[in-house]
Amino acid sequence: MINKLKFLIIIFALNFLALQALAEAKNNYNFPASFDLRDYNRVTAPKFQNFPGPCWAFAAVSACESNYLTQNFNFINNINLSELHLAYLAYKNLDNKKNFTPFKYKNSGRVLSGEGNAFISTAVLSRLDGLVHENDAPYSLETIKNFNNLKFKNILRVTDVYNLSLSQETLNPDAAKYLIKTHGAVTASFYSDFNKYKAINNFYTYFNNSHDDLTTHDVILIGWDDNFSRNNFLPRPERNGAWLAQNSWGSGWGVNKGCFWISYEQYMRGGIAFITAKPNKLLTHYGYDDLGYCKHLKFNYAANIFKIKSNHETLDSVAFYTTRNDASYEIFIYNLNFTQPRSPVSGNLLFKSSGKIKFAGYHTVNLNLKNLNQITFKQGQYFSVIIKLDCPIACESKIKDYTDNFAINKGESFFSRDNKNNNKNWIDGSSLTDPANACIKAFTRKLF
Fold first, then answer.
1. What are phi and psi of 83, to 5 degrees?
2. d(CA 9, CA 3)
3. Domain 281-446 has CATH 3.40.50
4. 348 exposure class (CB count in 10 Å sphere: 0-12, 13-18, 19+)
């Protein structure tokens, strides 16, 4: 996944908030003592990433497939999404979009060996570089060689990503169970030591009792067993209970069709669920944060100014990150009456709404306009999306050996601490000591 030095650099730079799991989950839901998504046909079979391989992409894609099955969608036959498509777009510049820095294989172009994490997956999948079928981008070196000549059709879109934990800790069982049971498999990152995988009592298990910050592997969690004996692990944890994890090392690995048990006491990051929807080919993406959530800033307001690309576009939805659970938000849409950007409030307020989001992470908010013409723009017109949050604002910024391709232009992103209606109170993101783009997106639909 990510080697220790680079991961620690990223953690220091991002200064992640400690995202607390839902305290009320246990009170609101009666969880069974054991659960397995396979019993309900809500997870696809284990894939084979090869060695080395982008386990992070396999975990994210498998979580997306599981969410699709959990929602009982039926617009895709035999769902099988391409991991290579995600891994390639993370590290290769395509359609003038920014790409992440390949750390371990910086000059080799070996995208299947590129390290990554769930934030990279979220960044790529949230910009409408959606999920395509495995048949369109098979997992092979030949696909990489001919990638620019291939034709892709997005068959699934990621709209939300729910995060449980960004710190090195054990996952909160109640919150993780809630996500698995409600939304499907979740991704998790942990330190994978081949010597700690054990075949005991007809089970394949893993427990590493080190509290080291290093994480080296991503898997998906597809179930649990509160009574799974501690005697099935070596070394032994202090109590019973384990997660059922699905690996990306093929169905023949281990003794349980590519799955294994991992102790509740295992230190892990993640518990991340990917929420999917049917793609809309009429949607156009507006956003500057191709590299996603890199750090957060303590402002109350953030805004992005966008310029409409074609005639007759109507605003469909906006997307942003929340950096803690149960965060409240307000959305303001302005039609800007100038030819060159000055501030995000130099115009007329067209729309506002508010709400609260249960989980930290990436979220798409549908505006649910009363009619298609409520917020319609002409080509070349400027508009702004302003987000007010009661938590720090997620931003894209430059981090050495991670987001070296970060770029920002004057007049794109703005931040404010107090009065959103005062032009002078807005700070251009390009003028900050550490320049940053606001992680705010807008999605429009073409009317005709």
1. -75, -35
2. 10
3. no
4. exposed
Burial 64-91 (b: 16+ CB within 10 A, else e): bbbbbbbeeeeebeebebbbbbbbbbbb
Superfamily of domain 4-274: Cysteine proteinases (3.90.70.10)
pLDDT band at residue 215 using 50, 70 and 90 as cut-offs = confident
Q: What are the domain boundaries of the chain?
A: 4-274, 281-446
What amino acid occupies position 100?
F
Q: What is the pLDDT of residues 93-120, one digit of tens each?
A: 777 889 998 765 444 446 777 788 999 9
CA distance 119 to 293: 7
- Run of H or E residues at 65: helix 55-70
CA angle centred on 182, ends 169 and 155, rounded to 5°: 105
Q: In 152-245, which residue ranges form alpha helices assigned H by DSSP?
A: 173-183
pTM of the model: 0.93
- The answer to whether residues 224 and 242 touch, using CB atoms and an 8 Å cutoff, is yes
Of 162, 206, 64, 131, give the one whose Cα is nearest residue 358: 162
The mean pLDDT of the chain is 88
